[in-house]
Write a structure and sequence with these properties.
- By secondary structure, the chain is an alpha+beta fold.
- Helix content is about 30%, strand content about 35%.
- The model has no long low-confidence stretch (mean pLDDT about 95).
- The longest helix has 15 residues.
- Strand 2 and strand 3 form a beta hairpin.
- A 3-stranded antiparallel β-sheet has the order 1-2-3, sandwiched between helices. A 3-stranded antiparallel β-sheet has the order 4-6-5, covered by helices on one side.
């Protein structure tokens, strides 16, 4: 539910991670993408459906690489083929496959890693 998502953002994600947003200036600054970073992980990358393919995700992942030049990791659900293609296009390589037992959604996932150079 939306209220649960808002609570998770407010109480879990934002206070614990470096967080960046992309806003649409033509829509009074509506947030269209969000990225949260820990020391070594892209903890969250979300792009609003109507903004997919418009560069917000590319700019945020580029910023993540600038902010963490020694490398990054992230998890992606295995069934999310568009996201997997996006990460692979941006230099992330799959390094491990999980059965979902380690995430709260219980969905099989892929650990991706990016290293510079």
């Amino acid at each position: 539910p939306d209220d649960d998502v808002r609570r998770w953002l407010r109480e879990e994600l934002l206070p614990r991670h470096e967080t960046w947003v992309a806003a649409d200036p033509a829509a009074d600054g509506r947030v269209v993408a969000l990225m949260a970073l820990s020391d070594t992980m892209v903890e969250q990358l979300y792009v609003a459906p109507d903004w997919i393919g418009r560069g917000a995700g590319r700019r945020l992942i580029g910023l993540a690489k600038e902010r963490r030049p020694d490398g990054l990791e992230l998890y992606c659900f295995a069934v999310n083929a568009p996201a997997r293609r996006f990460y692979e296009r941006h230099g992330f390589a799959p390094v491990a496959f999980g059965d979902g037992s380690a995430n709260m959604e219980r969905q099989p996932d892929v650990l991706y890693r990016w290293r510079p150079g």
